[in-house]
Design brief:
about 230 residues, mainly alpha, 3-stranded mixed beta sheet, 7 helices, about 75% helix, binds zinc ion
Length: about 230
């Protein structure tokens, strides 16, 4: 039995469960008003202003759970179900995205490293497999060149694994900041804070699942192609 293949199946199932859990937890606490009826956008504005980030704008964005902070445009984009809702789910997600804005403003080391990795990963995600496949074909005529190309492809894939690894502390830190800010506002009961926490914890698991999948895929690549030295 191939242990890495088995682990890949396990992480695939884990990813599906995590995705279901994120949606169900978000929905579960998305129909309750919380705090003083402040919406996700209002809460985000308040936290941004408290950190002197007056110039960071807040926009509405289409889609479900499409919320993000754009560091280049210095804009916080909140989805419909977060922007104008005062639910524990909405304010939790809004405050989490503000957490990313604060990370950028404070030059939090992992987020800076992550931003630097983005162009590398954009290239790597399209070219790692291409390099491996072309390398495999070339091996028949030129073993050395083929092996180099395969190794280069695996190295590119490793860059994406590194990206997932660096993403994890960024996400956990943003959620920690979010919960601290919500608590400091004094608007929420411990019960409401607990609901926001559950939503953010479920969301964090998606990044754990992505990292686990990437590590196992990398190990499989190394095992399948890494030992083909002639
Ligand atoms: Zn995040």
């Amino acid at each position: 039995m191939d242990i890495l293949y088995l682990l890949l199946v396990v992480t695939f199932v884990f990813t599906l469960i995590v995705q279901f859990k994120v949606s169900s937890t978000f929905n579960r606490f998305s129909h309750i008003g919380s705090g003083r009826g402040k919406t996700g956008a209002e809460v985000a504005r308040r936290i941004l202003d408290a950190h002197g980030l007056f110039d960071v704008g807040i926009e509405r964005v289409h889609g479900h759970l499409t919320d993000h902070y754009d560091p280049r445009g210095r804009v916080l984009r909140l989805s419909e179900s977060v922007y104008s809702s005062s639910s524990p789910s909405a304010v939790g997600v809004a405050a989490h995205e503000v957490g990313h804005a604060i990370q950028h403003a404070e030059k939090y080391a992992p987020i800076q490293f992550r931003t630097k990795l983005v162009p590398v990963v954009n290239f790597a995600s399209s070219f790692s497999w291409i390099a491996i496949v072309i390398g495999m074909f070339i091996t028949y005529s030129s073993t050395i060149l083929g092996n180099y190309l395969v190794s280069f492809g695996i190295l590119l894939f490793a860059a994406t694994t590194l990206f997932h690894l660096v993403t994890l502390p960024c996400e956990l830190n943003a959620s920690r900041r979010a919960l601290t800010e919500l608590e400091l506002s004094g608007w929420y009961s411990s019960e409401e804070l607990g609901m926001s926490k559950k939503v953010l914890r479920a969301a964090a698991m998606t990044y754990v699942a992505a990292l686990a999948t990437s590590i196992i895929q990398l190990l499989r690549l190394i095992r399948i192609f890494g030992n083909r030295r002639d």
